[in-house]
User: Fold these one by one.
Assistant:
Number 1:
Amino acid sequence: MTQKLPAWIEIGAFVLALIAGIINVVGLLGFQHQSVSHLTGTVSLFSLKIIQGEWLLVQHFAGVMLSFFLGAMLSGLIIQNATLRLGRRYSAALLLESLFLIFALLMLQGNYSAGDFWASAACGLQNAMVSTYSGAVIRTTHVTGTVTDLGAMIGQYLRGHQIDKRKLGLYWLLLSGFIVGGLIGAYVFLQIGYHILWLPIAITQLLAAVYGWYWFKQNTNSDNSHT
C-alpha cells in the first residue's frame, strides 16, 4: 500500500501529526486538561465519571467523543473515496479543519468548555481524512497504533523477516511529528496561552492552498498533454 502513495505523503503526514501534537497538548494544558486528538483516555474517563456520578463531566466527555465522531463523519461526506485522488476535496477538508480550530480558539479564550468540542471535531476530521486516502496506513492524531506497528515491524525484522522500509520510515515520521508538535505546543502555550492555536490554523490553511495549487497544476499539465 505505501509503495503506491505519492512521494510527498511523508511530508504531509509529518506536518499533520505535528498539528495534532500541538492541539492535543493545548487541550491537556488548558483549563479542562482534556485530551482532544484521540478518544481512548476520554472513553475511560467517561466510564469513570458515570460510576462516580459526576454528570457535568460525563456530559463534557460525551461531547468530546461525539465531536470527534462528527468530524470524522464530515470527512467522509467531503472526501467520499477510499483512495488518494487529486481533486478529492482535501483542500475543503483542511479549510474546514482550520475553521473548527478558530472556533475552538475563540471558545477556549472565553473559558467555554465547548472549545474542546471544536478542537476534537477538527482532529476527527483530520484523522479520517488521512486514513481515508491512505488506506488506514496513516493515523495523524494519535500514536498508539503507530508505536504498535513500529514495535511489530522491528520485532519481525529481528526475526529475519523483510519489512516495508518506507512504511517504517513513515511511522517514525508520524511519531516524531506528534512529539515535535507537543514540544512546540507546550513551550509556546506557556508563553502566550491559547494563541498557539493560530499556528495549526495557519498550517492547515497553507496546506489547503498548496494542495489546491498542486491539483490545479496537475490538471493543467494533463490538459496540455491532450492538446
Number 2:
Amino acid sequence: MAWLVSERSVEGRVLVIDDEEQIRKVVGTVLRKGGFDVVEAEDGAKAIELLNSGDNPMMIDVIICDIRMPHINGTEAIKYFRAQYPSVPIIVLTAYPDFQLATSMLKEGVTDYLVKPVDREKMLMAVKNAMEKRSLFAT
C-alpha cells in the first residue's frame, strides 16, 4: 500500500513554533488534516536549529510562531526568519492579543496575527493565504 502515500498530495510544509506541546499538537493535527506536512519546534532556538541543520536548510513554506516563549522568543525568532528566509510567510499565533504588537509585526512583514484559541477554518485559511502570497513572490 506504499503507493497510497505517494498519491496523497501535500499542500506544503508548515513549521509550528510554540512552547506549549498541547498547542503544537492541536495546530499540527488541524494542519495535517488540511493536507499540510507539519514540523514542530518548542521555541525559537529549536526552530532556528531545525531550519539550519544538515547540509541544506529545511524547506518550509509557512512559519506559525508564538510570541511568548523561553530561550529565543517569537519576536527575536521572527526577526531572524525575516532576515534569513525573507520569502517564507510568517503567521503569529499568540494567546496575548496586543494591538500595538500586531500592528508592528504586520508592518515588519508578518502575514497574519491570530489569537488563541483560533478557529480551525480561520487557521487553515491563514495558512492557505500565506502560501498564495509566497507563490506570488516566487513567480
